[in-house]
Each structure stands twice: as structure tokens, then as C-alpha cells.
Amino acid sequence: MLRGENIKAAKGKLGVLLVGLGAVSTTFVAGVEAIAKGNAEAIGSVSQMARIRLGKRTENRAPLIKDFVPLAKLEDIEFLAWDIFEADAYEAAIKSGVLEKTLLDSLEPELRKLKPHKAVFSTDYVKKLSGTHVKKGANKLELAKQLMEDIDNFAKEKQLDRMVMAWAASTEIYLEADPVHWTIESFEAAMKDNHPAIAPSMIYAYAALKMGIPFLNGAPNLNLEIPALRTLAEQNKVPIGGKDFKTGQTLMKTIIAPGLKSRMIGVNGWFSTNILGNRDGEVLDDPESFKTKEVSKLSVLETIFEPDKYPLLYGDLYHKVRINYYPPRGDNKESWDNIDIVGWLGYPMQIKINFLCRDSILAAPVLLDLILFTDLAMRCEMFGVQEWLSFFWKSPMTAVGLYPENDLFIQQTKLKNTLRYMMNEDLITHLGLEYYNQM
Ligand SMILES: NC(=O)c1ccc[n+]([C@@H]2O[C@H](COP(=O)([O-])OP(=O)(O)OC[C@H]3O[C@@H](n4cnc5c(N)ncnc54)[C@H](O)[C@@H]3O)[C@@H](O)[C@H]2O)c1
Question: Could you tell me the fold of the domain covering 4-245+361-422?
């Protein structure tokens, strides 16, 4: 790992390759364009807005993270996208209904320029969608090669220095790991055979990793965790990350659950329901896509509460998650959580949370932070799964054999200490030794 002045500079342009040009991607692209022009603020983005304390509290050093570590500048980002619909970023953003038309009109020339390439897609993996803007090829390996050609042309045309690819496309159906996923060789052979265990998202990931480009999986699809893709990332020395952006209801869960646990308050029921009416909601209305999302949403509480270590407090937790497609709400999701908690001497209490959130408004800054930090990891020569970025994932990937850390506050400490370590600063334990040593 390279640290301090040895970290490669963020010079030149960073290409951001977006799979899917829907609500999240267009909100992200329009936001980056508006912020780069100085017309909007990057609220919600840790890389742009958060400060990091350095050294002892008496030193009063707390620079912005973007001034502390060498991150790519928003003005240096160029976009490429793939989608199964032909709509450019302006039309897709209008259709997504997240951002106001006046803002989109002010960015129309930039957004119109982002026209998606034909996608690698099959309705077998997203049952609720069918599109015509789709690549054709003899087999799945051929399709991967077509993606690589798109990337090559883009890199040459824009004279890019570096790239990061992110999956911000629809959630695919639930897939189990298959023996063809075990090695790169079996994976490539299966691509040639058009094996059904190779989903489109895996074809994009393969194309990126093969070209030495980091890949981020913003949806809960089975993808980077299969051994073939993990090995490819390590062989080609590429950082990777997933899965499923942590926004909305799960963000709330990972804020509240660690707080209850830290005070040893028991929880025996957590019922979460959602209504949303965007295309993501429509896709998740299909039971097979919902299953993928459900697994990702359910996994969070288990690792925070550790029921095996605290059976009395969390051993009987009943956790239920529902997502209901309800078109009138569009991207403005509403979620309700009922939490049945248990206090002193076993007395029951309840917490109710009603979150009226805007899904893509929460997801866009997460996508930006993940891209900028992953590009930084690449320049630090940090390869494979980037656990220090667990902070941003609903279902964070880990090193093989380890359990994920879902507690948002532990994740934040890990993120900030990794940045301090990169820049040769002392790690902060919050021990306050300077005070005791004076006594
Ligand atoms: N918005 C959030 O808060 C949030 C949080 C976590 C995860 N996610 C995930 O991010 C993804 C994007 O969400 P969204 O709200 O933008 O959804 P969306 O439906 O608005 O956009 C997804 C786009 O992907 C396209 N697409 C589908 N399959 C494709 C393929 N194989 N190749 C290229 N394009 C393809 C669709 O045509 C669509 O335009 C979803 O999987 C969602 O579950 C979103």
C-alpha cells in the first residue's frame, strides 16, 4: 500500500462508467454537474463536506477530507453509461421525476450529451423490464468484449487517466452461487456456453476487472462475492466494493440499532415496511428481485445485535421487511418501522419511525463518495474488497471468512482511521491520553 506523498496523484480525468441510467445515476450526474459549476452544494457527501480530526484535540486540526487526501475533482469527471432504454440523461432524469425541471433545464446541454450505450441485458434476470436498446452477441464472453470496446473508445475519446465502473442498474433476481463461479477459467467457459448462472451484472463486472477498472455493485445482486470475480480483482490489482447502497430505511437501522445495543436495551421485534413508486419499486414488485433485496436488508440487524452473544436481549428478534410498489409516490419513498424494545426488568416499550425520504437524493452522494474513495484506493495500490468503505454499503463485502461490520459508527471510525493511516497521521482511539498523562 502506498501512503503519504507516495500515493499517486489524482491528475488528469476520471471516467465514471455507469451501468443503468435511471433515477440514481441521473440524480448523481446532474448533481455532480451542478456542484462542479458552483450552482449547488454536495450535501450528504462525506468526501466533499466532512472534516477529519487530526492529532490531539488541542491541535485544532480538522481539514475537509477532500483537502486532506488527494481525491479527484468533480470538474475532472467524465461520464459513460449503458441502459436498455435509449433516453439520454436529460430525458431519463425527467422520467425519473427526482429533480426539478428547472434544475435539469439549466444542465440540459451537459445531460443531453450523455447518451447510453446499448446494454447487456436479459429479461430472465429482471422480469419486470424489457428494453430494445440491448447488445447482441454469440455468447456472454462476446458481450463482455463489446463492453470493453465501449470503454476503450470512451477512454481514448476523453483521454482518461483512470476509470471506475458502478452498477446502478435494476436489481436482478435472486441467484445462488454456482460451481461455474468458482474459478476464472470455469467462469469464462460458462460465459462462452451462455450458462444461466452468469447474470448480466457479472458480465459488466468481468469486463471492468479484466481491464483493471474498479467495480462497485450498488444493488444487492450476487456479483463480486463469487470467487472468480474476486480472484480476477486480486490478480489484476483492482479495488472492488459492494453491495447495495446504504440509504433510507437501512441507514436509519444502522444508526438506531447500535445505539440501542450500546445501552443493552433488548429488541424482540422490528417490522419495516415501505411504499415506493419508482422503477426500482416496480422491479422489486417481482418476488424474485425482491428476494435479492430482502436478503440484503435483513442481514443488517443480525451482525449489529449479535444474538449468539446476547441471546437474552436479541435471541428472539422477529425481523420483517416489506416493500410495496405504490406508483403515486414516485421516487419519494415512505417507510415505517415499528421497533419493539425491552428495558429494565423486561418492561416492553415501542419506537415508531416514519421516514419520508427521497431515495435517489440519499443514494447520489453515496455513489459519489464510493467512486472518489475507490479511485483513491486504486492510487494507493489497495486491491480487492475495500472493507474501510463498508460505511456506504447496506450489505458490505468482507475479506473471506470474516463477518461484515454493520454498525455505522464502527464503520465511520474505520473509514476515518484508514484515511489517517493513508496520510501517515496518528490513528485516533478517542482515549484522551493527553489529559491523563498531565495528571
Ligand atoms: N435509490 C436508492 O436509495 C438505492 C439504494 C440502494 C440500492 N439501490 C439500487 O440501485 C439500483 C438503481 O436504482 P434506481 O432507483 O436508479 O433504479 P431505476 O429503475 O430508476 O434505474 C435503473 C436503470 O437500470 C436500467 N437497467 C436495468 N438492467 C440493466 C442492464 N443490465 N444494463 C444497463 N441498464 C440496465 C434500467 O433500464 C433503468 O433505467 C437498483 O438496483 C436499486 O435497487 C438504490
Answer: Rossmann fold (3.40.50)
- How many other C-beta atoms are found inside a 10 Å radius of the C-beta of residue 257? 22
Alpha-carbon distances of 412 from 237, 373, 396, 417, rounded to whole Å: 25, 14, 13, 8
List, for residues 278-314, the tens digit of each pLDDT value.
877 788 788 888 887 788 777 889 889 999 999 999 9
Say which residues have a Cβ less than 8 Å from residue 4's Cβ, sequence separation at least 6.
Answer: 422, 423, 424
Ligand 1 centre to CA of 140 (Å) is 21
At 438, list the grid cell. 498531565
| Residues 28-54 pLDDT 10s | 999 999 999 999 999 999 999 999 999
The pTM score is 0.95
DSSP state letters, 367-430: HHHHHHHHHHHHHTT--EE-GGGGGGBSS---STTPPP---HHHHHHHHHHHHHHHTTPPP---
Q: Quick one: CA dihedral 102, 106, 107, 113, positive or negative?
A: positive
CA 178, CA 187: separation in Å to the nearest integer? 10
What the block records as the C-alpha cell of 81 is 453509461
Write out the three cell numbers for 383: 486491491
Report the topology of domain 248-358: Dihydrodipicolinate Reductase; domain 2 (3.30.360)
- 159 Cα–ligand 1 center, Å: 28
Mutate to test the pocket of ligand 1, among 122, 221, 280 (most ligand atoms within 8 A of CB): 280
CB 256 within 8 A of CB 408: no
Q: Where are the domains of the chain?
A: 4-245+361-422, 248-358
